[in-house]
Protein backbone atom coordinates (compact mmCIF):
# COMPACT_ATOMS: atom_id res chain seq x y z
CA UNK A 1 0.00 0.00 0.00
CA UNK A 2 1.71 3.19 -1.22
CA UNK A 3 0.41 6.65 -0.26
CA UNK A 4 1.38 10.23 -1.04
CA UNK A 5 0.28 13.49 0.59
CA UNK A 6 1.21 16.61 -1.39
CA UNK A 7 0.55 20.05 0.11
CA UNK A 8 0.98 23.30 -1.83
CA UNK A 9 -0.03 26.72 -0.51
CA UNK A 10 0.11 30.00 -2.44
CA UNK A 11 -2.75 31.89 -0.78
CA UNK A 12 -1.08 33.10 2.41
CA UNK A 13 -2.57 36.20 3.97
CA UNK A 14 0.00 39.00 3.71
CA UNK A 15 2.73 36.79 2.24
CA UNK A 16 1.42 35.11 -0.94
CA UNK A 17 3.48 32.73 -3.03
CA UNK A 18 2.95 31.68 -6.66
CA UNK A 19 4.64 28.39 -7.46
CA UNK A 20 3.62 25.97 -4.71
CA UNK A 21 0.56 24.43 -6.37
CA UNK A 22 2.50 23.93 -9.61
CA UNK A 23 5.14 22.07 -7.57
CA UNK A 24 2.76 19.48 -6.21
CA UNK A 25 0.68 18.99 -9.36
CA UNK A 26 3.91 18.43 -11.31
CA UNK A 27 5.07 15.97 -8.65
CA UNK A 28 1.74 14.10 -8.70
CA UNK A 29 1.87 13.74 -12.49
CA UNK A 30 5.40 12.32 -12.33
CA UNK A 31 4.47 9.83 -9.60
CA UNK A 32 1.59 8.51 -11.69
CA UNK A 33 3.68 8.45 -14.88
CA UNK A 34 6.32 6.37 -13.12
CA UNK A 35 3.54 4.05 -11.89
CA UNK A 36 4.72 4.48 -8.33
CA UNK A 37 1.26 5.43 -7.04
CA UNK A 38 -2.31 4.96 -8.19
CA UNK A 39 -4.19 8.22 -8.66
CA UNK A 40 -6.51 7.38 -5.75
CA UNK A 41 -3.51 6.96 -3.42
CA UNK A 42 -2.30 10.55 -3.96
CA UNK A 43 -3.99 13.25 -1.88
CA UNK A 44 -3.44 16.91 -2.75
CA UNK A 45 -4.19 19.80 -0.38
CA UNK A 46 -4.04 23.33 -1.77
CA UNK A 47 -4.67 26.82 -0.42
CA UNK A 48 -7.92 26.99 1.63
CA UNK A 49 -8.01 23.21 2.01
CA UNK A 50 -4.59 23.18 3.66
CA UNK A 51 -5.52 24.21 7.19
CA UNK A 52 -3.61 22.99 10.21
CA UNK A 53 -6.31 20.51 11.21
CA UNK A 54 -6.71 19.16 7.68
CA UNK A 55 -2.98 18.68 7.12
CA UNK A 56 -2.65 16.90 10.47
CA UNK A 57 -5.64 14.70 9.61
CA UNK A 58 -4.17 13.77 6.22
CA UNK A 59 -0.77 13.07 7.79
CA UNK A 60 -2.45 10.56 10.07
CA UNK A 61 -4.13 9.05 7.01
CA UNK A 62 -0.71 8.84 5.37
CA UNK A 63 0.83 6.72 8.12
CA UNK A 64 -2.25 4.74 9.14
CA UNK A 65 -2.17 1.07 8.23
CA UNK A 66 1.39 1.23 6.89
CA UNK A 67 3.42 -1.96 7.01
CA UNK A 68 6.84 -3.18 5.89
CA UNK A 69 7.38 -2.75 2.17
CA UNK A 70 5.02 0.21 1.81
CA UNK A 71 6.17 3.56 0.42
CA UNK A 72 4.98 6.87 1.85
CA UNK A 73 5.65 10.37 0.50
CA UNK A 74 4.97 13.75 2.11
CA UNK A 75 5.69 16.78 -0.11
CA UNK A 76 5.26 20.29 1.25
CA UNK A 77 5.65 23.45 -0.82
CA UNK A 78 4.93 26.65 1.08
CA UNK A 79 6.18 28.90 3.82
CA UNK A 80 8.24 27.64 6.73
CA UNK A 81 9.47 29.44 9.82
CA UNK A 82 10.88 29.22 13.33
CA UNK A 83 8.19 29.40 15.98
CA UNK A 84 9.14 30.51 19.52
CA UNK A 85 6.99 28.88 22.19
CA UNK A 86 6.40 30.03 25.78
CA UNK A 87 5.55 28.05 28.90
CA UNK A 88 2.64 28.75 31.26
CA UNK A 89 4.72 31.43 33.00
CA UNK A 90 5.35 33.28 29.75
CA UNK A 91 9.00 32.24 29.55
CA UNK A 92 10.57 30.91 26.37
CA UNK A 93 10.61 27.11 26.42
CA UNK A 94 11.57 26.20 22.85
CA UNK A 95 12.17 27.50 19.36
CA UNK A 96 10.83 25.00 16.84
CA UNK A 97 10.97 24.68 13.09
CA UNK A 98 7.49 24.65 11.62
CA UNK A 99 5.59 24.56 8.36
CA UNK A 100 2.93 27.20 7.85
CA UNK A 101 -0.58 25.97 6.98
CA UNK A 102 -2.89 28.42 5.21
CA UNK A 103 -4.37 29.49 8.58
CA UNK A 104 -0.95 30.14 10.13
CA UNK A 105 -1.07 33.06 12.57
CA UNK A 106 2.06 32.59 14.75
CA UNK A 107 0.15 30.58 17.33
CA UNK A 108 1.13 26.94 18.09
CA UNK A 109 -2.48 25.95 17.34
CA UNK A 110 -2.04 27.01 13.70
CA UNK A 111 1.37 25.57 12.91
CA UNK A 112 2.86 22.11 12.62
CA UNK A 113 6.16 21.97 14.47
CA UNK A 114 8.98 19.49 14.76
CA UNK A 115 7.42 17.97 17.87
CA UNK A 116 4.08 17.61 16.11
CA UNK A 117 5.68 15.85 13.17
CA UNK A 118 7.66 13.57 15.46
CA UNK A 119 4.48 12.52 17.25
CA UNK A 120 2.72 11.61 14.00
CA UNK A 121 5.68 9.95 12.30
CA UNK A 122 6.47 7.87 15.38
CA UNK A 123 3.69 5.60 14.12
CA UNK A 124 5.63 4.61 11.00
CA UNK A 125 6.71 0.97 11.45
CA UNK A 126 10.09 -0.47 10.55
CA UNK A 127 10.45 -1.53 6.94
CA UNK A 128 8.40 1.34 5.50
CA UNK A 129 10.16 3.66 3.05
CA UNK A 130 9.14 7.19 4.02
CA UNK A 131 10.31 10.28 2.17
CA UNK A 132 9.62 13.92 2.85
CA UNK A 133 10.30 16.66 0.29
CA UNK A 134 10.25 20.12 1.86
CA UNK A 135 10.39 23.11 -0.48
CA UNK A 136 10.27 25.72 2.25
CA UNK A 137 12.70 27.26 4.71
CA UNK A 138 12.92 27.63 8.46
CA UNK A 139 15.65 30.19 9.12
CA UNK A 140 14.87 32.67 11.86
CA UNK A 141 17.60 35.13 10.90
CA UNK A 142 15.95 38.20 9.38
CA UNK A 143 19.27 39.25 7.86
CA UNK A 144 19.05 36.14 5.71
CA UNK A 145 15.41 36.57 4.74
CA UNK A 146 16.16 37.16 1.07
CA UNK A 147 19.42 35.20 0.73
CA UNK A 148 19.17 32.80 -2.17
CA UNK A 149 16.40 34.77 -3.86
CA UNK A 150 18.61 37.17 -5.80
CA UNK A 151 17.46 40.63 -6.81
CA UNK A 152 15.00 39.37 -9.42
CA UNK A 153 11.38 40.34 -8.71
CA UNK A 154 10.39 36.83 -9.76
CA UNK A 155 12.33 35.24 -6.88
CA UNK A 156 10.58 35.38 -3.52
CA UNK A 157 11.58 33.79 -0.22
CA UNK A 158 9.55 30.85 1.11
CA UNK A 159 10.19 32.01 4.66
CA UNK A 160 7.17 33.55 6.34
CA UNK A 161 8.00 37.20 7.24
CA UNK A 162 8.36 37.55 11.01
CA UNK A 163 6.65 40.23 13.10
CA UNK A 164 9.17 42.19 15.14
CA UNK A 165 8.06 40.66 18.44
CA UNK A 166 8.45 37.10 17.15
CA UNK A 167 11.83 37.90 15.62
CA UNK A 168 12.99 39.30 18.98
CA UNK A 169 12.08 36.05 20.74
CA UNK A 170 13.90 33.99 18.10
CA UNK A 171 17.06 36.08 18.38
CA UNK A 172 16.87 36.03 22.20
CA UNK A 173 16.77 32.22 22.09
CA UNK A 174 19.89 32.20 19.90
CA UNK A 175 21.73 34.69 22.11
CA UNK A 176 21.07 32.39 25.08
CA UNK A 177 23.06 29.77 23.18
CA UNK A 178 20.15 27.39 22.80
CA UNK A 179 19.56 25.32 19.70
CA UNK A 180 16.46 25.03 17.54
CA UNK A 181 15.94 21.40 16.46
CA UNK A 182 15.85 21.12 12.67
CA UNK A 183 13.15 19.12 10.94
CA UNK A 184 15.73 16.63 9.68
CA UNK A 185 17.21 16.01 13.14
CA UNK A 186 13.85 15.92 14.88
CA UNK A 187 12.41 13.16 12.72
CA UNK A 188 15.56 11.32 11.62
CA UNK A 189 14.77 8.37 13.90
CA UNK A 190 11.58 7.80 11.88
CA UNK A 191 13.11 8.27 8.43
CA UNK A 192 13.25 4.84 6.86
CA UNK A 193 13.95 6.64 3.61
CA UNK A 194 14.98 10.25 3.10
CA UNK A 195 14.33 13.88 3.97
CA UNK A 196 15.01 16.27 1.08
CA UNK A 197 15.01 19.96 1.92
CA UNK A 198 15.27 22.86 -0.51
CA UNK A 199 18.01 24.64 1.42
CA UNK A 200 20.38 24.56 4.36
CA UNK A 201 19.22 25.72 7.78
CA UNK A 202 20.77 29.18 7.32
CA UNK A 203 19.34 29.72 3.81
CA UNK A 204 15.97 30.31 2.20
CA UNK A 205 14.23 28.46 -0.62
CA UNK A 206 13.13 30.51 -3.61
CA UNK A 207 9.65 30.77 -5.07
CA UNK A 208 10.69 31.42 -8.67
CA UNK A 209 9.67 31.95 -12.30
CA UNK A 210 11.29 29.39 -14.57
CA UNK A 211 10.29 28.35 -18.07
CA UNK A 212 7.48 30.94 -18.19
CA UNK A 213 5.72 29.58 -15.11
CA UNK A 214 5.96 29.91 -11.35
CA UNK A 215 7.44 27.12 -9.26
CA UNK A 216 9.79 26.41 -6.38
CA UNK A 217 13.36 26.53 -7.68
CA UNK A 218 14.25 23.39 -5.72
CA UNK A 219 11.11 21.52 -6.80
CA UNK A 220 11.67 22.48 -10.43
CA UNK A 221 15.22 21.18 -10.62
CA UNK A 222 14.46 18.12 -8.48
CA UNK A 223 11.56 17.07 -10.70
CA UNK A 224 13.61 17.83 -13.80
CA UNK A 225 16.36 15.48 -12.63
CA UNK A 226 13.88 12.78 -11.63
CA UNK A 227 12.16 12.91 -15.03
CA UNK A 228 15.37 12.34 -16.92
CA UNK A 229 17.27 10.16 -14.48
CA UNK A 230 14.67 8.09 -12.65
CA UNK A 231 16.50 5.49 -10.60
CA UNK A 232 19.62 7.60 -10.05
CA UNK A 233 20.79 7.34 -6.40
CA UNK A 234 19.43 10.14 -4.26
CA UNK A 235 22.88 11.34 -3.29
CA UNK A 236 23.67 11.88 -6.98
CA UNK A 237 20.31 13.55 -7.60
CA UNK A 238 20.99 15.95 -4.71
CA UNK A 239 24.38 16.84 -6.19
CA UNK A 240 22.86 17.42 -9.64
CA UNK A 241 20.14 19.66 -8.19
CA UNK A 242 22.76 21.63 -6.24
CA UNK A 243 24.75 22.16 -9.43
CA UNK A 244 21.67 23.27 -11.38
CA UNK A 245 20.65 25.77 -8.68
CA UNK A 246 24.17 27.18 -8.51
CA UNK A 247 24.32 27.56 -12.30
CA UNK A 248 21.03 29.49 -12.19
CA UNK A 249 22.49 31.67 -9.40
CA UNK A 250 20.24 30.49 -6.59
CA UNK A 251 22.15 30.63 -3.32
CA UNK A 252 20.50 27.59 -1.76
CA UNK A 253 22.03 24.17 -1.23
CA UNK A 254 19.50 21.35 -0.77
CA UNK A 255 19.94 18.96 2.15
CA UNK A 256 19.54 15.19 2.11
CA UNK A 257 19.21 13.13 5.28
CA UNK A 258 18.08 9.62 6.10
CA UNK A 259 19.04 5.98 6.09
CA UNK A 260 22.46 5.76 4.34
CA UNK A 261 21.51 2.45 2.73
CA UNK A 262 18.41 4.01 1.22
CA UNK A 263 20.20 7.13 -0.04
CA UNK A 264 22.15 4.89 -2.39
CA UNK A 265 18.88 4.05 -4.18
CA UNK A 266 16.65 6.14 -6.41
CA UNK A 267 13.68 8.23 -5.32
CA UNK A 268 11.31 6.04 -3.23
CA UNK A 269 13.19 2.95 -4.35
CA UNK A 270 15.16 0.20 -2.63
CA UNK A 271 14.31 -1.94 0.34
CA UNK A 272 14.73 -1.38 4.06
Give me some keywords for this one.
globular; 3-stranded antiparallel sheet; 272 residues; 30% helix; Rossmann fold; 6-stranded mixed sheet; alpha/beta; single chain
How does this structure look, described?
The chain has eight helices and twelve strands. The chain is of the alpha/beta class and 272 residues long. The chain has a single domain, classed as Rossmann fold (3-Layer(aba) Sandwich). The strands form three sheets. The protein has a six-stranded mixed sheet with strand order 2-1-3-7-9-12, with helices on both faces. Strands 4-5-6 form a three-stranded antiparallel sheet. It has a three-stranded antiparallel sheet with strand order 8-10-11. α6 crosses α7 (234-247). The longest helix has 14 residues, at 20-33. The chain is globular, with a radius of gyration of 17 Å. Residues 140-151 have low confidence and may be disordered.
Q: Short summary of the structure?
A:
By secondary structure, this protein is α/β, with parallel strands linked by helices.
Q: Can you lay out the helices and strands and say which pair or pack?
A:
Layout: E1 3-8, H1 20-33, E2 42-46, H2 52-63, E3 71-77, E4 80-86, E5 92-99, E6 112-113, H3 114-121, E7 129-135, E8 156-157, H4 164-175, H5 183-187, E9 194-197, E10 206-210, E11 213-216, H6 217-228, H7 234-247, E12 255-258, H8 260-263
Helix pairs in contact: 1-6, 6-7
Amino acid sequence: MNKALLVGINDYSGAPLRGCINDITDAAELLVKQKLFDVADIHLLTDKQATTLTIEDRLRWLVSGASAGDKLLFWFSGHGTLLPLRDVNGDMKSNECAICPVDFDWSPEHAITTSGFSEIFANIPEGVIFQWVSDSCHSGDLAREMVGCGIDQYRVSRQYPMPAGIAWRVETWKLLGKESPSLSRAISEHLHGAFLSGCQENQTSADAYIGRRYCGAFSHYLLERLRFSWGTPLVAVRDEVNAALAEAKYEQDPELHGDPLHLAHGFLQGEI
